[in-house]
Design a protein that fits this description.
This protein has helices at residues 20-33, 90-98, 147-161, 164-167, 175-180, 182-185, 188-194, and strands at residues 42-49, 55-57, 73-80, 104-107, 112-114, 119-122, 131-140. By secondary structure, it is an alpha+beta fold. α1 crosses α3 (147-161) and α3 runs antiparallel to α7 (188-194).
Amino acid sequence: MNYLDPSEYVSYGLNAETSDALVTAASAMIDSACRRLTLAVAQYVECLSVRRHGTVQLSFGPMAALPPATSAIVDIRVRMRKPSADLFSPLAYELAVFSTPGTWTDLAPSQVYVSPDGLLHFQSSLLSGIVAEAAVTYTAGYADIPVPVKLACAQIVRNAEATPALNVRRQAVDSLQMEYFSGTLLDADVLRLLQPYVAERVG
């Protein structure tokens, strides 16, 4: 998606006649720099290893429910590991021993806590101590694109317009040509603006 609407070009320091192709290419470069498909609200599916203390960081944030859903977690399944007898209560150990190893178990979204930035935490229970992996379907992103992202998009376009090799063929620029100049267009100011929106994990 384009992170600047034509009606916003002037307010973000661009010429009203700025080529939409430049904005499209700049937006695609932002997605690439942030290691995500889009900064808008989208659905993701991840299979992640759960830390020993029962938490896992989802790659993309912030959490955002798509109406009519009320939770950003759409679906969650977990796979348990067999604990050693000295780490858990006897009852928890028995449950783990007699359950089928490696099977996936469905959980209700209400059985886990997820922070706004995507830190998933299994509530205290017999199950939480033995979760090895979690397969999570969730929605995350920004319903309203943040101002720093819009500023970064405008800056990339200005950088492109100031690059002679791009300026000559401005109307014919596509994302492939823009990518060639990414080292110049994604300058330190742009990267600083985008840093808070980079995905937590490579995914």
